[in-house]
Amino acid sequence: MGNPRIFIVEDERRIARFLQIELEHEGYETATEDNGLHAFERIAQEDYDLVLLDLMLPDMDGMTICRKVREISDIPIIMLTARDDVEDKVNGLDIGADDYMTKPFAIQELLARVRNALRKPRADGRDVDNEGEKLQVRDLVMYPSRYEVRVKGEEVQLTKKEYSLLEYLLRNKRNVLTRDQILQEVWGYDYTGDTNVVDVYIRYLRAKIDDHFDEKYIFTVRGVGYAIKE
């Protein structure tokens, strides 16, 4: 399971780009659409985990999109609008929106509401419980669907690249991964930078996890690479 995919339906390109940058910085995958009719077609045909839905859109407004989506899917929908009329909010929630935010909004509040909406179990079984998929080694736990890492119950804040590296190590726990394997998986086959970047990011992870919690999770196998062990 990869990082949650968020579909941004917004016809103001500046706002759409801002949301895309902030969400991707938090580790989410994103897609955007500025046309209401096309947005509904993509929601029906493509695979997303959450929709951020503007109300004022060309060809099909957000209320109509929400109502039609609810006929075929229970995907979480957060409405975003410049209209703060109470009746609009009530209508949006009544036709199936999970949440409703009025512009302008604080990005941290939006991110919190996104996390909350993604925690809710889906009727289609994609999240069989409130935790979803869980990767664990001792007291180190990762919830990929929530983009969340906890050690001994305390949440650990990681950058997108740190998170991707840790996820790869956890999915291959007990296996020793070479620097080349890590580079190809986490940085991509077309990466042409210094291979020392792996060592640098391993140090970042150790500082936030091993050192901070005074317990060793990430091991070095000399001449080979790195591994997470039970």
Automatic annotation (TrEMBL):
GO terms for biological process: regulation of DNA-templated transcription. One of its GO terms (molecular function) is phosphorelay response regulator activity. InterPro entries: CheY-like_superfamily, OmpR/PhoB-type_DNA-bd, Sig_transdc_resp-reg_receiver, WalR-like, WH-like_DNA-bd_sf. Residues 132-230 form the OmpR/PhoB-type domain. Residues 5-118 form the Response regulatory domain. GO terms for cellular component: cytosol; protein-DNA complex. SUPFAM superfamilies: CheY-like (SSF52172). SMART domains: REC (SM00448), Trans_reg_C (SM00862). The modification 4-aspartylphosphate is found at D54. Keywords: DNA-binding, Phosphoprotein, Transcription, Transcription regulation, Two-component regulatory system. Residues 132-230 bind DNA. This is Response regulator transcription factor.
